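Issue 218. Parser rejects a valid record. Input:
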Amino acid sequence: MSTFKAIEPTDFPWFKYSDYTFSLGLATEADAFISGHTASTFDPKASRMVVVGGMRDQVDVSYNKIETILEAAGMTLLDVTRVVENITMDGLANYVECETIRLERFKGHKPSVTTVIVDALLRPKAYIEIEVYASRGGGKRLFEGDDCGWSRNTIIEGHDGSIFLPTLLPVDSNGDVVYAGDFVAQYRYCLERGGELLARIGLSLDNSVTTYDYSTPETRAVYGKTSRVRKELLGGAGVFPGAGGILMSTMHTPGVLVAIDLVASRHPLIAVNPGWSRYDTLSYTPGVIAGKTLYMSGFASLDMQTQEATHEGDI
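Output the parser choked on:
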């Protein structure tokens, strides 16, 4: 079994990472998982962490950090299989600069790209936080397309048979939002789009191990109707994927009501449930084992029997 080790660069000029309770990244002999990084830097004069510059500057600093961490693990950006971009609402207007820098830094290498729109990041002036997965050799490129804009196609096989799809959005190949105003129809479109991408590489939605959906509070009234769509399209092999549902204040582009991040696997799926009966009727599973990897649902501080929040008011 592969053993994870913390990645500890000899020289990391942005801040003293040993003072923190997280690792810059974890690595095995073959793979690396890099924490999310903003452009935060310790300012000795101010005695605190600061973030300066516009989107272009911040993206460059984030990738400088990531390159330094990968180098300490014996890797480069050419080994990256998946990029997760967390973009703030303030940064969204300049997202094209993020795309431009990413293309420049990867020099023709195309990882799968996930983009999440968030209200804010830990550092108030940060526009972006970038997380990457890497496998020696850059994984296996299963399908490549034009990933500029919101209709993306690139599919990468990463660690342990994991299949990374780009963010699924209700946006067609012309860049137009489909099913305007219809949340459930957009949800279905995203899942069916994921199925189409998986079909191109000989897989299907039955291979899904996780689905994380992002939507706005205004969609809560009809969110429950997506259960029928999920039960129709997912779990065909007998195992529903893990899942999470995250509320956002805004989405990628006007008219978009939902975005879905879907990960699949080449391996047979095994459901993992500690005995929580509430999942017996749901369209997702607490965890899924595929190969040697455990993929998990998102969890809130809820009592698994009563579904009431625990430790109210105490984060």
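Fixed in the parser; the record now loads. The chain has two domains: 1-138, 179-315.
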